[in-house]
Structures are given as structure tokens and as C-alpha cells.
């Protein structure tokens, strides 16, 4: 059975390219922001892991993560955050909010995929 990944990224080209790459190992669901991600989750689309950008319009990664961790339904889903390379304060903030990993941009899709697989093992 293929694992499901919810990719939450506001930049359409990156979302499409990364989604295509990750579809080698996952069934990829996508959302343009945290609000769209919550809508997908509320419709029963339950992923094995969520990969989210930290900074997005309408609902950013921190608010999404807070909503996930506050819910009874989605609080156990592992979350990997894509964020700024040299922002230790942001990295710490997401860790405190319950992120399982923080992956700095720019990144190698292959290394990202390895990290995701490690989180699911």
C-alpha cells in the first residue's frame, strides 16, 4: 500500500515539481496553504505525513501546525516543515509547536524524500 503525503506549498511550480518527484514513493495530495490543507483533512483525506511550507498566505505553516496539534483527529500526523535555511528561531518555534522535522530551503528533493521516509519508519 502506498503511503499518502499531503504537500502544503503556496508556490505552484515548487508544489507541482516536488509533488511529481515525491510521487515516486507516495500518493501525493496537495494544498496551496494551511486553510486548504485543513479543508482536505476535514473531507477525510488522511495522510501518513504532512510536508508544509513555513510561510504561506491565508494560513501559514505555524498556524496549520497549531491547528493540527490542537485537534483530536490529526494531532498524531508527523509534520515536516520547509523553511528558511539560517533561521534558528523559526526552527525552534516549529519544534515547540510539535513539528517532527525542519528542512531548510533550498534543498535537494532526494534528501528531502530520505528524511520523509526516515520519519515514517
Give the biggest beta sheet.
5 strands, parallel
Integer tally of domains: 1
CATH topology category name: Rossmann fold
The overall pLDDT, averaged over residues, is 95
Number of helices: 5
CATH class: Alpha Beta
Element string (H = helix, E = strand): EHEHEHEHEH
What gross morphology would you assign? globular
CA distance, first residue to last residue: 15 Å
CATH superfamily: Response regulator
Per DSSP E runs of 2 or more residues, the count of β-strands stands at 5
Helix content: 40-55%
What is the gyration radius calculated from CA atoms?
13 Å
Q: If you had to describe this structure to a student in words, what would you say it looks like?
A:
The chain has 121 residues and is α/β, with parallel strands linked by helices. The protein has a single domain (3-120), classed as 3-Layer(aba) Sandwich (Rossmann fold), CATH 3.40.50. It is 43% helix and 23% strand. The protein is built from five helices and five strands; from the N terminus they run βαβαβαβαβα. The protein has helices spanning 12-22, 34-42, 61-70, 88-97, 109-120; strands spanning 3-8, 26-31, 49-53, 79-84, 101-105. The radius of gyration is 13 Å and the shape is globular. The relative contact order is 0.18.
